[in-house]
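During the no-cost extension, the postdoctoral fellow (Dr. R.K.) reprocessed legacy sequence entries with the updated structure-token encoder. One reprocessed record is reproduced below for audit purposes.
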Amino acid sequence: MLLELHSHTSKHSSCSTIDPITIVKQTVLKGLQGIIITEHNYLWSDEELNELRKKAEISENFLILSAQEVQTDMGHILIYGADKSITDKISLSSLREQYPDAAVIWAHPFRNGFIPEKGKLFNPLLDAIEIFSSNQTHKENYLGLKLWHEYKFTATSGSDTHDNERIAILPSQFDHPVNNINDVVTELRAGRVRPFFKEIPRSGSHLIVTEVTFGTKGEDEERNRIIIKKISNTAKWEKEKLSVDINKAIYEKGFNSTSKYRVPQIIDISPKENLVIEEGQRGKNLFEVLLNTKSDAGLEYFKLTAKWLARLHNAKLKLTTKEDSAKREMKRFESYKNVFISTNSPFKKKALEAIEFVKIGENALFAGPDAGFVQCHGDFHPKNIIIGFDKTHDPSTLFVSVIDFNNSIVMPPEFDVGYFLAQFKAQFDNYPKIQEKYKDSTFLKAYQEESSAALKSGFKAQVELFKLRAQLSIASFYIKVGKGESFEMDELISKIKTT
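Re-encoded structure tokens follow.
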């Protein structure tokens, strides 16, 4: 059972701008089963609650209850089950003494960067800790989550509603149904409640990534999501910090939530913990979307992807150097050679010729002027591209966002274009209808339309060079995962051309 445990209305809390009827109706639309109004130092009477239910025209099945938020020597406390308004500041011990049968929750204790000691979190006068709150930052909510996992105290979440933006966004989940305030008190004191959220951990090499989704969908599916990255390796951390700097620079160039073209916002970075918290992107990657889209909408997403890339290149950012790029590329070529040679791949001869061809072509570019180089994504492919809508079923809120700048590199713009086209064909190798529908020419035309400068005469030739570079990368990957003599490998090598 989902309940909103922390909300304020304009009727009895001067800090709130939202009227009681609106808050109740919107909470119903969010899919909750009840709301507990927690005004500052004021307890709604049963008569007031009944009148509110009638005015809001809400079913009897929806629970409307009242508690209150009070100021104590420990900070703000939510108290459920007191029989009258508590109008003055009171010590926590006195509060417990006067209302021994009530349930008490410490409200937004991580606010303003405060880190409660373990002893305070297990204070016997408290029944639960509010770990998620709209009155805390994403970083502070993450800290609450982290300490909850570590210490395993009873936890809740609360929207701390004061306006339309914060209605029922952070409810709590009760293990058993409740019908009145006494039931609520019983469940809180027994610890049969927890924050309502989804947590998906993913592990990789020296990296733990956790996606946390807070609260309920409601009708608009607008839920807060954060991505938490914890890096254990020092070298990987340095690479991640650079990725964060590049992400921030792109975000500041207008790729934010007000635009159709986006990157995730970096919420926080902690060198002390080797931790990065970034905004989660609401949507699915382009690979998934195109597989499940039968209409022409897929072509719009495909073209938007090309336009996003053109806009990145239009920004003409340079946060790394051409010299670094040259070193990285030569190191990669050696790695590709070693993979084909050490495994005695049947495609070794053709692959080594291709590696040498691309190496010569890139070295010629590195020896030339810097003017044609820009910050590229470096790993631009369908699974790093997010297609989403700010509001479900509203086409006008469509956006494209791009993630993962760990391989970002200063190169000619054609690098990203060629890389994408090669990766697109490889990822959709078993879907000929997809490849037939989404053509290179469509992507290139959309890219050109959005590009701020006329494409140079050698543009297509350089795109082909970098397509070959990407094909070598894909082939090397196939060998590493045991597909060195697979049908996919044979298909890929057959497409490699050095003339």
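The chain has a mean pLDDT of 93. The longest helix spans residues 459-480. The remaining legacy entries will be reprocessed before the final report is submitted.
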